[in-house]
Amino acid sequence: MAGIVVVGVGPGIGVAVARRFVREGMSAGLIARSEEKVKAAADALAGAEVLAVTADSTDEVGLRAALDRVINAHGVPDVVVYNAAVIQPDAVGDLTAQQQLDAWAVNVVGAITTAAYVVPSMVERGRGTFIITGGMPEPKPAYVSLSLGKAGVRTLVTLLDQQYGAAGIHAATVTVGGGVAPGSLWDPEDIADHYWRLHAQQRADWTHEVVL
After folding, report:
1. Distance between CA atoms of 128 and 119, rounded to whole angstroms?
2. Taking the chain (212 residues) in consecutive chunks of 10 residues, what is each chunk's mean pLDDT?
3. What is the pTM for the complete model shown?
4. Domain ranges of the chain
5. Inter-axis angle of helices 144-164 and 110-125, to 10 degrees?
6. Which of 96, 148, 171, 208 has the fewest other C-beta atoms within 10 Å?
7. What is the CA radius of gyration of the chain?
């Protein structure tokens, strides 16, 4: 069985999703900007077939190189999860234009880079799942950059479905409506189950957004 790639893996949703798919016998490619985070995620999946790679999701060349490393090791993934995000409170006028662009680069452009590089290979194979971790089911004036970014990836999922759905690519977002913490309404292990259910859906039953 081919594997999963998680871009933006971390101690919450990212590692929980990787763990959920590894339980199904998949390999896992773990990508994050921080070496400490990818190492911790790999350690949490001890015993599984895991490749941990550092790359910044805003560095197109570096991100593509990291994806290449995973594909060369494990093959074209069955599932790609884009989980990178800049989560910060900011109101209109709090950030400079460059700071808004920097947040957008992580929240949206990195997902575009990942999809543009991996999805065509999935199309050649005839199937694949591309899931983005969403949020902000309603925009909030105290979280402007995040509200805009999550609206952007929700639209990206629609565009990916329009372009690649007929070719067998299931694009979806899991929209998380609050702070992720074990034992809370947004427990990462519970959230991870929704990623697996999306991937396991038959084509006739495809869902494109799960709102939690």
Report:
1. 8
2. 90 97 97 96 95 98 98 97 98 98 98 98 98 97 98 98 98 96 96 98 98 97
3. 0.97
4. 4-211
5. 20
6. 96
7. 16
